[in-house]
Amino acid sequence: MNDECNRLKEDCSKDLSIIKSTISDNPFSSNNRFLIDFMIIRACSTIEKIFKLIIYNYLADSVKPETERFLSKRIIESSCNPSAGIMENILADIDSIKKEQFCVWLRENNRRNIKGDLNSLVTLRNNLAHCNENTSGTSINIVERYFSSGIEILDFLDDILSEGA
Q1: Is 78 helix (H, G, I), strand (E, B) or coil?
Q2: Which end of the chain is more exposed for a tag (fewer CB within 10 A), N or C?
Q3: Is 121 within 8 Å of 43 (Cβ atoms)?
């Protein structure tokens, strides 16, 4: 991952650590629910931003300025839930071989449920954003696991897009 992606990942990890510590220090605080909800949104939006940057950086390498602006508007400035399925669809539009590598890797790592974790984080975020469901059953440890799984998926995505680049 490039420096910007790594910075985003580290910033979110620091926030997660601070919030986890705050909750641990006062486990019965009425504010914990809001801290967890914030971290759901923070973790998911960080994964979304990194995902879009990985795709953008792959596609925008050595293109005309006009193409770079177009890609920025269509990728970076767009809204896109970072679910595994959407990642697969975008990869299919870019390179079917890389999409297949990605899908095989997800299947091989299914025993750890990283794909399900990422999709669960996106669902939690959407439920919060659209007032569809209460997230009171979600702990900060669950959010941390979902975020780690999402980052692992992004690391692999970045690796396969970097091959032969």
Answers
A1: coil
A2: C
A3: yes
